[in-house]
Design brief:
homodimer, 518 residues, alpha+beta, eight-stranded antiparallel beta sheet, five-stranded antiparallel beta sheet, globular
Chain lengths: 518, 518
Amino acid sequence: MAEVLVPPGVSPADFAAALAAFREAVGPDWVLTSEPDRASYLDPFAIGPRDEHAASAAVAPASTDELAAVLAAANRYKIPLWPVSMGKNFAYGTAAPVLKGAVVLDLKRMNRVIEINETLGYAVVEPGVSFFDFKEELDRRGSKFWMSGPAHSWGSVIGNALEHGVGYTPYGIHAETICGMEVMLADGTLVRTGFGAIEGSREWQAFKLPFGPVWDGMFTQSNFAVVTKMGLWLMPEPAEMAGVTIDVPGKGDLAKLVDTLRPLKLDETINTAYTIANGMRQITGGARRQEIWQEGGAISLERIGEVLAQRGKGWWNVIFNLFEHTAGGMDLRVEKIRRHFAAEMPEAKISVVRWKRGEPQQPWMRQDVSLAPFAIVDWRGSPGGHSDFGPVVAAVGERVNAVYELIERRFLEYGLDPWVGMFGIGGRALIFVADMLYVQDDAAMTAACKALFRQLCKDVEAMGIGVYRSHIEFMDDAEAIHGWNGHALPKLNDSLKAMLDPNGILAPGKQGIGGRQP
Amino acid sequence: MAEVLVPPGVSPADFAAALAAFREAVGPDWVLTSEPDRASYLDPFAIGPRDEHAASAAVAPASTDELAAVLAAANRYKIPLWPVSMGKNFAYGTAAPVLKGAVVLDLKRMNRVIEINETLGYAVVEPGVSFFDFKEELDRRGSKFWMSGPAHSWGSVIGNALEHGVGYTPYGIHAETICGMEVMLADGTLVRTGFGAIEGSREWQAFKLPFGPVWDGMFTQSNFAVVTKMGLWLMPEPAEMAGVTIDVPGKGDLAKLVDTLRPLKLDETINTAYTIANGMRQITGGARRQEIWQEGGAISLERIGEVLAQRGKGWWNVIFNLFEHTAGGMDLRVEKIRRHFAAEMPEAKISVVRWKRGEPQQPWMRQDVSLAPFAIVDWRGSPGGHSDFGPVVAAVGERVNAVYELIERRFLEYGLDPWVGMFGIGGRALIFVADMLYVQDDAAMTAACKALFRQLCKDVEAMGIGVYRSHIEFMDDAEAIHGWNGHALPKLNDSLKAMLDPNGILAPGKQGIGGRQP
């Protein structure tokens, strides 16, 4: 039998006592210590050996009362917990903790849709509500409001918003749809943010700016508390939609493309995130790698160009959807985009599909729940994995192009196919998703991925650029970029962490916060 | 000679030493202790004796280095400071501190417009930049971006955003236009939030969601740090604008009006805040009170109705502007609003004025700096003052109406004219501005205002409702409403305050935070 994994610094006796206290708190069925149970919390896309981030156990409370009892026991025995909503944070660690031996605090049993408000357009949900569940509930009620989902729908609605996930609608910056939370501090205190701090509030989800400071953002991408309820704004059903695809032939045209899209995004003519896919990203659809590339190392840019040419595609492909609430407005919006591109980039080919309220929904509208993006995982072979390098870059053509060229060069240098998407988001920035696709048990390849990510962190730090999120493997690296004035911001985070969670029981090391404490 | 005012708990000797240290820090000219200087920081609209919130001195650093030296001295001698940007927070205390005897930390000398970025549409400013200054700078540069200003333009751009001030454009929730700050903690540490924490960042103002927690909101309506720089997003010039006025006759129609406006606001057909003025608010324009009302106490509802009838006005008046970025779109937008009202409230009279890019700007567009709203101050007599009760209410007709009726009844009961505006903001809520207009040296009237405000706090607390900001006089009352789970949120604020500012030097009592510490 394998040695029992215990949390670092915790004696086997204390760990056993903690597990007993957890069982007392949540019932024996919901403290999971068996090998198969523990394995279910491993990262299926681990970058290297999965057990480097193995959990020692998992505990799954069904209520805030049970949660409080779990936290009390964790404080007593100094047990590091790793809270997950659904544990589906694919590509960023899934359910696995930064700290090997931490106990996963699995919130999937807290799964109520507490409210869907059809008057004001908001919902209140618990962490265990997935996008599948949520869509089903909206449909069941015949809601006239729409959900903004991410690329795949297994995950938690709360978890995605907390991790700054994005979707493909005007409400697609999911963290910005948050309005009011209930959180439990490490000491077991429940706090409601915003107007939820008023007994009997009906404004908790109605306005984001309460009397006093605004805490909601503090509980995103952090480990300051466990989020137990969240309010989220929902989008009214549009009158019209359009799906726009723009094909841009020349590899050298990225800067011009970004500069051309910018004013349309800034004034919200384009009122969702746009995605720019590079050539590599375009040739993977429906293809198997060995049909394209038989040599070692990364697919060459030349070869990518050949395949694009065979398929009649340009190097850059832009897609976005438009939402319009005033019937008839879509004609003007599409025409404006066509005119603008005709003037600025006449070589771009634009195609448009349309929808009007009352018509059946189409796949391009991305209103259905989906698992489609997983198709790419085994691109390099099985068992495949993927994770991404996600720098955030100002929507300025020459800067975006410089980061793109850097990433492409480094990917090729480290033997990885340069699979890159860029998401134009919020009008003023692009988030890169430079996807490292690897074979998990190819030690050389996973080592190359780790080295590549760390090299890229150094590269972009020199340009003044950071990332929007990261795999658990790289959280310290990503945090380390924030060095202004002697790392003043990371230190501030650590100070708040030490105050709120002196025993470091909540997700030590998440986003690099509180990870180096005893 | 009057006794020298010293901060509470500080000996005259320590105070003298602190002032000497302040002079060392900022130069002797910028430590202000004379009677006229101190008087300039009194609240010109004080609700009762102005010296109840008198400052003992003021100190005005010109740079972050000077500011750090001031904070060091304040920590050494335990001097409470009251940071103000321009000190023009009219109706909420202006420059006067909550705590009598605090030293005003006047940031008006830190007044650089550090950047106006014409590519990405943002600005970086210091606290001492007023809306007047900022508009002038935008005009000087021929910027193609527009400012979103508040009702009057004396104040600080930063100060207004920090206090959750609002304007009349699609960027009118000014706190939501904040993207990145530089703040100085009480211990003198400078911190840059968001991507500003990366050396050489060009993304500081490009994206609000950094790697890790989002601090910006924490430095609004709080006293956790001194904001020394702020990034703010600017609005692209629209292609078209419209100014819409809607007259609704019946006093009983408020609920229906709010419910009729809600879907148009929720889907951003109306893409700015709308203002609903009640009858009282409409009859003050261009009038003198004694012409309307010669009896004692508040103007009766009957009399308000008579004056409205004489002027041919309904009880409710709605105004808002529409912004459109796609030429031609305004026709559709206006037509949609007209059709919707024709179906839901045919008795409403709608009038519309229009503007297109290239035409001269008009006053209704509110793009000019202004002091106009001050005209109302002496309504009850001179020296007049005003402050408001500002509950935030979900955009649900029956609830808005219940709060309105409550406020009107209480105002009349306390002998004050029920001057009420409601601002439909963010789609899901209205902010009330129920303006108490009083004569400052009428002790009975100011006592009635105080009693009224506190009574209304109790009234709305029973409905689960809080306020969006308050005069310094009422900050503890406004905070006390947040009682959920044993005042968990106010206690969390106090804990963070104690950690960041153990000597309580920064704005003790602001928003009720840290006010009860030694």
